[in-house]
Amino acid sequence: MSTDGADHDRDSIAAVYAQVGENYRAIDDLRLRLLALLPLATGAGILVLLGGHGVAAVVGVPVGVFGMIATVSLYFYELHGVEKCAHYIDRGVQLEDDLDVPGAFTNRPHQIFGVVSELLPAALIYPASFAGWLFLAIYHAGPAVRSLATIAIFIAGATASIVTIRVMEKTRPHRRAQLEREHSEAEDRTNP
Predict the structure, then answer these.
(1) What range defines the domain where residue 53 resides?
(2) Which member of 92, 97, 160, 164 has the greatest number of CB atoms within 10 A?
(3) Rounded distance, CA 175 to CA 151, Å?
(4) Which DSSP helix (H) or strand (E) runs through 116?
(5) Beta pairing partners, 111
(6) Are 39 and 128 in contact (CB under 8 A)?
């Protein structure tokens, strides 16, 4: 009878593992689509508006500001997706350990050349898109101002993004432990 219980537990763990894998793939797929579509939408939008002739400030400024706001919003959504993916990866590793199988979560590659991670594209694409929309918003400021501001904002944005991602990665274990403590305390208050 204990064997049936162990088989049931293993089946339950395997079912949870399958769901964790599906959730991870869904979020990862959405993140990839956003990373692919954002530069295309930014480039197409700027190209259409400028159309080789320029754009009136009355159109370029609000559209550029809207594009910057949309880009920043999508970036924060990306950071949330990064956290969700990290959660599913950690959970997947735990479940693979419970199942005693070296699966896709345990054996996943982490970095290329010890430096480049899967997060590098996000750290570059979002600041580049933001800089593109800024370029449109300040189009009438003149070529030198426009170019210097766009380059400076891209470099500052990419740097800030890389730092943000590294801080998220380093503080993740502490933040997870804090959430677990809060969850445990809330459970204790509910079930005295």
Answers:
(1) 2-190
(2) 92
(3) 34
(4) strand 116-117
(5) 117
(6) yes
pLDDT tens across 116-153, in order?
677 888 999 999 999 999 999 998 888 999 999 999 99
Distance between CA atoms of residues 88 and 149, nearest Å: 39
DSSP single-letter state for residue 111: E
Q: Is the dihedral of CA 118, 120, 124, 126 positive or negative?
A: positive
Tokens standing for 42? 């930014």
Q: For the chain, how many structural domains are there in total?
A: 1
Q: Give the H or E element holding residue 15.
A: helix 2-50
Whether 140 and 57 have beta carbons less than 8 Å apart is answered as yes
| Widest distance between CA atoms in the chain | 80
The neighbouring-strand residues paired with 116 are 112
- Say what the pTM is: 0.82
CA distance 174 to 180: 10
Q: Is 190 left (phi over 0), alpha (psi -120 to 50) or beta?
A: alpha
CB crowding 10-45: b at 16 or more within 10 Å, else e: eeeeeebbeebbebbeebbeebeebbeebbebbeeb
